Automatic annotation (TrEMBL):
Organism this protein belongs to: Acuticoccus mangrovi
Family to which this protein belongs: Belongs to the iron/manganese superoxide dismutase family.
Domain called Manganese/iron superoxide dismutase N-terminal: residue spans: 30-112
PROSITE patterns: PROKAR_LIPOPROTEIN, SOD_MN, TAT
Keyword list, A-Z: Metal-binding, Oxidoreductase, Signal
Protein name according to UniProt: Superoxide dismutase
GO molecular function, one term: superoxide dismutase activity
Length: 222
């Protein structure tokens, strides 16, 4: 059972698809959207070199592999979020991994668009109520990251006006939960190792406190 402020591993047994209309709605062949900023705009929190490798190599690589895998299958007629959700449910692991990582990274890069900003309105109230504010969320996210063994993601999810901190392994997505993904924190080493080496906690605190555009995040919290 989900509880507020809890950290959990989201399974992929449900059939719900996340309500996030701006992400992953086009059918194959899938293409990553262009970055909504220049590669050096996230520095010094994320260097230009990390952005180029993360977006240009890793993210595009997931799309390239996914298009090869779904060609000639029923998945080719579905949207990216549908593929990511259904492939996990169907046990099509290779398709699910690449679709999940393709989808995850769209949200990841989008949350920095427009530059950093503080949360406002209903989102600020919810963050204060559930975590004591952005700093409290950062504290819980850092603690949760230490309980994710190996690669994975941390998510700030919304269901109505309630917020949840959840984790997924490897390339899994929160899509099966049916909740709205507000923030996605990439725990794969390619997201931070060039800039922070093994200091993952420092990287997460910098993302949350200095880089996320909370107003943009708030647009999904409706």
């Amino acid at each position: 059972m989900l509880t507020r402020r809890s950290v959990l591993a989201l399974g992929a047994t449900a059939t719900a698809v996340l309500a996030c209309p701006s992400l992953g709605r086009a059918a194959a062949p899938f293409e990553p959207p262009p970055l909504p900023y220049a590669p050096d705009d996230l520095a010094p929190v994320i260097s230009r070199r990390t952005v180029e490798l993360h977006s240009g190599i890793h993210h595009r690589g997931y799309f390239r592999a996914l298009n090869q895998l779904v060609a000639g299958t029923d998945y080719a007629d579905l949207s990216l979020d549908e593929v990511a959700s259904l492939a996990f449910q169907n046990g099509d692991v290779e398709i699910a991994n690449n679709a999940g990582q393709a989808w995850n990274h769209i949200l990841y890069f989008d949350q920095f668009a427009g530059g950093p900003s503080e949360p406002e309105g209903a989102l600020a109230e919810a963050l204060g109520r559930e975590f004591g504010g952005v700093e409290g969320f950062a504290d819980e996210a850092v603690a949760a990251s230490g309980r994710v063994f190996g690669t994975g993601w941390l998510w700030l999810l919304a269901e109505g006006d309630a917020l949840y901190l959840a984790s997924t392994e490897d390339g899994d997505t929160p899509l099966p939960s049916g909740m709205v993904a507000l923030v996605g924190l990439d725990l794969w080493e390619h997201a931070y190792y060039l800039d922070y080496e093994n200091r993952k906690a420092d990287h997460l605190r910098a993302l949350i406190g200095r880089l996320i555009n909370w107003q943009r995040v708030g647009e999904r919290f409706v």
